[in-house]
Design a protein that fits this description.
This protein is α/β, with parallel strands linked by helices and 288 residues long. It has five helices and 14 strands. Helix 2 links the parallel strand 2 and strand 3. The radius of gyration is 22 Å and the shape is globular.
Length: 288
């Protein structure tokens, strides 16, 4: 079976920064999947993977549907060649510990897995700066992530169904993490007290209803320079209009668990009240 090969955009050659991370998450130089599949047919033959032997210049790969045996072959033979790997729908891999043998690996993006239940040992991933994990059904603890010596960007959550849960963000305390994106359903301990201890953190993104308004205000008060999608009293939001069948009614989404969404027109004082309450909470927590 011949491998199906597609060429994607080459990675931008520049110093690592957030825009470069995003390019890495979205693009790869080479995609490897079964030849008889439009999306992600299972890779059953070593010859599928060995197409990489014809491309020693390739540093970024998107690879589909590995099982445990083909994953191990891929990493053992070609892992040290690569800087960025996007694992797409490799749902049956159950042990990814071989990733810990790649000191030059810079970015891992792994979408969809049903068997992995713990992180690998990252202590020898000296170059790993960005890690994105999405739609993992059994991975609930990020314990061990603190061993990654260079990690700056961490994304965890869901790309399709919002079902992912993690136990805590505490393993990221006192690390060099600069950006966290959590798009899952729940953080079990709901403990935000660890966030100010992430001294290099610049961006913290999470769903608008993950924390209470009080918890969001506390984060804003204790981390005044921190940016984030939900770190504010409300978001502008276009509401669906049943008359026009379009989302064309200017509205707002109040940040916080169980908080409402409503049209602005006719509710200006209501919005002012929510903003005033949020600002008062921030002022209160700043002095505590």
């Amino acid at each position: 079976m011949d491998v199906h090969v597609e060429y994607f955009y080459e990675l931008i050659k520049q110093e690592w920064n957030y825009s470069c991370y995003k390019n890495s998450f979205d693009d790869a130089q080479l995609a490897i999947k079964a030849a008889d599949s439009d999306v992600a047919g299972s890779i059953r033959y070593i010859s599928d993977i060995d197409k990489l032997a014809d491309h020693p210049e390739v540093k970024s790969v998107r690879i589909f549907a590995l099982d445990q045996d083909t994953f191990e072959y891929f990493i053992n033979k070609y892992g040290r060649q690569l800087r960025y790997i996007h694992f797409y729908s490799n749902k049956s891999v159950e042990d990814w510990s071989l990733l810990g043998t790649l000191p030059d690996l810079e970015c891992v993006n792994w979408f969809h897995n049903q068997k992995i239940d713990r992180l690998w040992d990252m202590s020898r991933n000296y170059s790993l700066k960005a890690l994105k994990i999405s739609d993992f059904s059994k991975l609930h603890s990020i314990s061990g992530i603190e061993k990654a010596p260079a990690l700056e960007w961490f994304e965890f959550g869901d790309a399709i169904w919002r079902t992912s849960e993690i136990e805590s963000l505490k393993p990221l305390e006192n690390t060099g993490i600069r950006r966290i994106n959590f798009s899952g359903k729940k953080i079990s301990d709901m403990d935000v007290s660890c966030i100010p201890n992430m001294e290099k953190l610049e961006v913290f993104d999470c769903p608008t209803n993950l924390f209470t308004t009080e918890e969001i205000a506390w984060i804003v008060a204790k981390c005044p320079g921190l940016e984030g999608y939900a770190l504010r009293p409300y978001l502008d939001y276009m509401i669906y209009n049943e008359k026009t069948h379009k989302a064309d009614i200017p509205g707002v989404m109040i940040i916080g668990k169980r908080k409402p969404t409503f049209a602005i027109e006719g509710n200006e004082k209501k919005l002012e009240k929510y903003v005033s309450q949020f600002d008062s909470l921030v002022d209160k927590y700043r002095t505590e």
